[in-house]
Amino acid sequence: RWLDLCAGPGGKAGLLGALAAQRGARVTAVEVAEHRARLVSQATRGLPVTVLAMDGREVGADPKLPEGHFDRVLVDAPCTGLGSLRRRPESRWRRQPSDLPPLTRLQRELLGAALRAVRPGGLVAYVTCSPHTVETHVTVTEAARRSGVSVDFVDARPLLPAGMPGLGDGPTVQLWPHRHGTDAMFLAVLRRG
Questions:
Q1: Residues labelled catalytic
Q2: How far is CA 75 from CA 13, 28, 107, 109, in A?
Q3: Cα distances (angstroms) measured from residue 121 to each of 94, 160, 166
Q4: Residues 191, 154 contacting (CB under 8 angstroms)
Q5: Is residue 167 part of a domain?
Q6: In the predicted structure, residue 161 carries a pLDDT above the cut 80
Q7: Which of 13, 45, 101, 179 would be 166's cystine partner, CB 3.0–4.6 Å?
Q8: In the beta sheet, which residues pair with residue 60?
Q9: 152 lies in some domain
Q10: Is residue 67 part of a domain?
Q11: Which of 4-18, 27-41, 84-98 has the lowest mean pLDDT?
């Protein structure tokens, strides 16, 4: 049982659904915005994906999605999007410093819900398209500390293509446009104890 916690508009849920179909797994895709949940439904039609329009922070507390229900959880959290400036330079004018506190609170709450929703021994991947430390390392560390469950960091580097340069010392990975030819993406993988 896999969970895509922030599923809209459906690209990742579609990929996860295709992988799940090959492996005999099922995906639950959660999206808070109704119109984006409909897009997820369209993108995953014919795949083993159940789409729920609900607040991802309620996962683990909702009887339909109880604590410890999932084997794997993906949290591609809403963020400032600063990591995509090379593709969307105008986005720098859409954000204010005052946007950061509510976003990081949301990120922590979503990751905390994911850590409660995954079974003991299960994995949570936290991904964001931001290089901002407050949205990456600080959010992950704080969410793990506040989650109320035992959490271990898993080295994310082996999960990326072999030979990819400049991945640092782990266990998290920060990708950079000038090094990796990608957006400035961050990845942390956590295992619930």
A1: 129
A2: 11, 12, 9, 11
A3: 39, 21, 29
A4: yes
A5: yes
A6: yes
A7: 179
A8: 66
A9: yes
A10: yes
A11: 84-98
